[in-house]
From TrEMBL:
The record marks 200 as: Interaction with galactose moiety of substrate glycoprotein. The active site is at residue 256. It catalyses: 3-O-(beta-D-galactosyl-(1->3)-beta-D-galactosyl-(1->4)-beta-D-xylosyl)-L-seryl-[protein] + UDP-alpha-D-glucuronate = 3-O-(beta-D-GlcA-(1->3)-beta-D-Gal-(1->3)-beta-D-Gal-(1->4)-beta-D-Xyl)-L-seryl-[protein] + UDP + H(+). Keywords: Glycoprotein, Golgi apparatus, Manganese, Membrane, Metal-binding, Signal, Signal-anchor, Transferase, Transmembrane, Transmembrane helix. This is Galactosylgalactosylxylosylprotein 3-beta-glucuronosyltransferase. InterPro entries: Glyco_trans_43 (IPR005027), Nucleotide-diphossugar_trans (IPR029044). It comes from Oryzias melastigma.
C-alpha cells in the first residue's frame, strides 16, 4: 500500500510539472530544473537507508537498550537519525534473557543493516531505588557487542570501520558521524547536558592535542569523557581483544576509562568537531510519561507502543 502511495505521489509531481511546462514555456528551463530536483529528492527520501558504499568505512553503532514505556519511541527516533547515515551497521543489545518482538519488529521495519543481540544484567548489578552507589548501566550489553565484532572480524580483515557507543536516549547531529568515520585510533569531542554542566569537553592545545578535560566530576580520570564523546577504530578493537568495560572493581564514572585505558594513551586521542569547539551530540533524556495504573474499561488493543 505504501509503494502505491509513493508511486501516485511521484506521478502527480510529474503531471504537475508537465502541465506547467505546457502553460508557461518561457519558464521551461527553471521548471525542468525544479522537476528533476523534486524527483531526485523524493527518490532519495524513499530509498533510505543510503546505498552501501565499498569506499567508506563502516560505522558500527552499539546501542544497549532495556524495556520501558518510552523504549520504542527512543529507538524510533534514533533509527530515523541512522537512516540518514551511509554505511552504518546498528548493533542493538537488549538487557533481557531473550530478544523482544517489539525491538525485532522495529529493526526489521527500518531496513537498516543491523545485528540484534541480548544479555540480561544480573539483578545485583541493576539500578534500584534507594541505592547509594548506582552500578553502571549497559556494561554487559556493550561488551557483548564488542565480542560480536571480535567473533565476526579479525585484525587481518580488510574491513575498515569505527565503533561508536550510541545510547538510545541521546540526540545526534548527522555531522558527528562523518567526523568520526575516519578515526585512526580514538577520536573525541564535546557532549552537551552531562556531568552537571552545559557541556563537557576535552581540552585541546594550540598543536591540536588533547591535554586534559573540561569536566566537573573527577577531572583526574584517565579519560574523563562521556560514553557519547568518543569513537574507536575497528582495527584497534580487533588487535586488543582484552579491552572491555569493567563491571566490577571500577569506581563510578570510570566506565569509559576502563575501556580506553586498554586501548590508547592521552596523546593518541584525535580531537574532532573543530578541535572540540562544537557540540554535535546532546545527552538528552525523555521524560517518563504520566501513566495511571489499574484503570478499568480501557482494553489494550495496541500490542506495541
Amino acid at each position: 500500500m505504501q509503494i502505491k502511495h509513493k508511486t501516485l505521489f511521484l506521478t502527480l509531481i510529474m503531471l504537475s510539472c508537465s502541465l506547467l511546462l505546457i502553460l508557461w514555456p518561457h519558464n521551461r528551463a527553471a521548471l525542468q530544473s525544479l522537476y528533476y530536483k523534486e524527483v531526485v529528492r523524493t527518490k532519495y527520501v524513499y530509498t533510505r537507508p543510503p546505498p552501501w558504499s565499498s569506499s567508506l568505512p563502516v560505522i558500527y553503532a552499539i546501542t544497549p537498550t532495556y524495556s520501558r514505556p518510552v523504549q520504542k519511541a527512543e529507538l524510533t527516533r534514533l533509527a530515523h537519525t541512522f537512516l540518514h547515515v551511509p554505511n552504518l551497521h546498528w548493533i542493538v543489545v537488549e538487557d533481557s534473557n531473550k530478544t523482544s518482538p517489539l525491538v525485532s519488529h522495529l529493526l526489521q521495519s527500518t531496513r537498516l543493516n543491523h545485528t540484534h543481540l541480548h544479555v540480561a544484567t544480573p539483578l545485583k548489578f541493576k539500578v534500584r531505588s534507594g541505592m547509594k552507589v548506582k552500578p553502571p548501566r549497559g556494561t554487559l550489553q556493550r561488551n557483548l557487542a564488542l565480542q560480536w565484532l571480535l567473533q565476526t572480524y579479525t585484525a587481518n580483515d580488510s574491513q575498515q570501520g569505527v565503533v561508536y557507543f550510541a545510547d538510545d536516549d541521546n540526540t545526534y547531529s548527522l555531522q558527528l558521524f562523518e567526523e568520526m568515520r575516519f578515526t585512526t585510533k580514538v577520536s573525541v569531542w564535546p557532549v552537551a547536558f552531562v556531568g552537571s554542566l552545559l557541556y563537557e569537553s576535552p581540552k585541546v592545545n594550540s598543536s591540536g592535542k588533547v591535554y586534559g578535560w573540561r569536566v566537573l566530576f573527577d577531572p583526574q580520570r584517565p579519560f574523563a569523557v562521556d560514553m557519547a564523546g568518543f569513537a574507536v577504530n575497528l582495527k584497534l578493537i580487533l588487535t586488543k581483544p582484552q579491552a572491555s568495560f569493567k563491571l566490577t572493581d571500577v569506581k563510578p564514572g570510570y566506565q569509559e576509562s576502563s575501556l580506553l585505558s586498554d586501548l590508547v594513551s592521552l596523546s593518541d586521542l584525535e580531537p574532532k568537531a573543530s578541535n572540540c569547539t562544537k557540540v554535535l551530540v546532546w545527552h538528552t533524556r525523555t521524560q517518563n510519561p504520566l501513566l495511571r495504573k489499574n484503570i478499568t474499561g480501557f482494553a489494550d488493543v495496541i500490542e506495541e507502543i
